[in-house]
């Protein structure tokens, strides 16, 4: 398994590539790569490599896929806490850079507000910075969220580390749109909330779905703000772009036996236990279970 230090060095190397480069230097791609079935990859994870049954002793290298607003950050964050590995979300890295007024801030602001995807060069710069910080803190393993988004990025990642598992979250597009438009953040405490109530009745053989709103406490109600990119026009554009680009990436990992497709059946109370079951994991944290 590659270390965060190895990844940092490799991403710095790839940052020197032209943004129009469409081929990868084959010297960095592992030779003799053998496709492994999804079942085998899950079994390898659950064996823990060294025979230890404690999930926190397994140095996972996972990727979360899913369109904007599907809940990648929520579930990747919960698994990060459960497995004690860092959750590295490119969306969070972008927002941190925007709030820092750093050299990329203005460029990022224009791209985000238009609902466009970031270039490989920007992604690599943000990841390199985050990985350097993690290396200094002694982090091991990772769960990537929001990367890779293109086959080229996936090829680069495969060239520098062995991804164990790719979890692809699925959710109805109309539900995603409602969720995105309902997102709010408290400008004082930084808490994230959602005012949308999803209540879809079962019909014509299709299952129903209910997601309760995540309402703020009374002290935050008057301090809620909406993300500048959470407008219907921008959200629909993000979804359109993602859907166009996601299929090749999904097929890239599916052909390697690493893609776990997971259809979210509802909100956290319904989805979290079923996701753990799909991963053969258990959450013994009573506080987290109660919060779900």
Can you give me a brief rundown of this structure?
This protein has helices at 4-14, 38-47, 72-83, 90-100, 105-113, 120-136, 151-160, 173-182, 232-254, 268-278, 286-291, and strands at residues 61-65, 87-89, 142-145, 165-170, 183-186, 192-194, 198-200, 209-211, 224-225, 259-263.
Structure write-up:
With 292 residues, the chain is an alpha/beta fold. The chain is built from eleven helices and ten strands. The strands form three sheets. It has a five-stranded parallel beta sheet, sandwiched between helices. A three-stranded antiparallel beta sheet has the order 6-5-9. Strand 7 and strand 8 form a beta hairpin. Helix 4 (90-100) packs across helix 5 (105-113) and helix 4 packs across helix 6. Residues 17-36 and 286-292 have low confidence and may be disordered.
Give the H and E element order: HHEHEHHHEHEHEEEEEHEHH
Report the C-alpha radius of gyration, rounded.
Answer: 19 Å
The unreliable regions are 17-36, 286-292
Task: Tell me the number of helical segments per DSSP (H or I, 4 or more residues long).
Answer: 11
- Major sheet characteristics: 5 strands, parallel
Overall structural class, as computed from helix and strand content, comes to alpha/beta
Strand order of the largest sheet: 2-3-1-4-10
Strand content: 5-15%
- What is the distance, rounded to the nearest whole angstrom, between the alpha carbons of the first and last residues? 33 Å
Strand tally: 10
Shape category: globular
């Amino acid at each position: 398994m590659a270390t965060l230090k190895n990844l940092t060095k490799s991403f710095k190397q790839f940052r020197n590539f032209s943004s129009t480069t469409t081929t990868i230097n084959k010297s960095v791609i592992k030779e003799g790569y053998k496709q492994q079935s999804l079942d085998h990859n899950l079994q390898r994870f659950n064996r823990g490599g060294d025979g230890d049954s404690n999930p926190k002793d397994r140095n996972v290298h996972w990727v979360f896929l899913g369109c904007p607003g599907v809940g990648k950050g929520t579930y990747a964050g919960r698994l990060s806490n459960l497995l004690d590995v860092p959750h590295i979300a490119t969306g969070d890295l972008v927002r941190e850079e925007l709030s820092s007024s750093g050299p990329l801030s203005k460029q990022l602001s224009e791209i985000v507000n238009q609902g466009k995807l970031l270039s490989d060069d920007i992604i690599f710069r943000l990841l390199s910075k985050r990985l350097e910080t993690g290396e200094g803190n002694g982090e091991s393993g990772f769960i990537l969220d929001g990367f890779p988004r293109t086959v080229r990025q996936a090829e680069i990642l495969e060239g520098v580390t062995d991804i164990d598992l790719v979890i692809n979250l699925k959710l109805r597009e109309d539900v995603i749109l409602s969720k995105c438009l309902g997102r709010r953040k408290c400008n004082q405490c930084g808490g994230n909330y959602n005012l949308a109530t999803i209540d879809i009745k079962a019909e014509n053989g299709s299952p129903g779905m209910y997601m309760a709103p995540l309402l703020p406490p009374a002290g935050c109600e008057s301090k809620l703000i909406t993300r500048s990119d959470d407008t219907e026009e921008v959200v629909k554009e993000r979804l359109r772009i993602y859907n166009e680009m996601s299929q090749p990436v999904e097929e890239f990992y599916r052909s390697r036996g690493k893609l776990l497709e997971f259809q979210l059946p509802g909100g956290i109370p319904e989805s979290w236990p079923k996701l753990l079951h799909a991963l053969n994991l258990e959450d013994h944290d009573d506080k987290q279970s109660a919060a779900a």
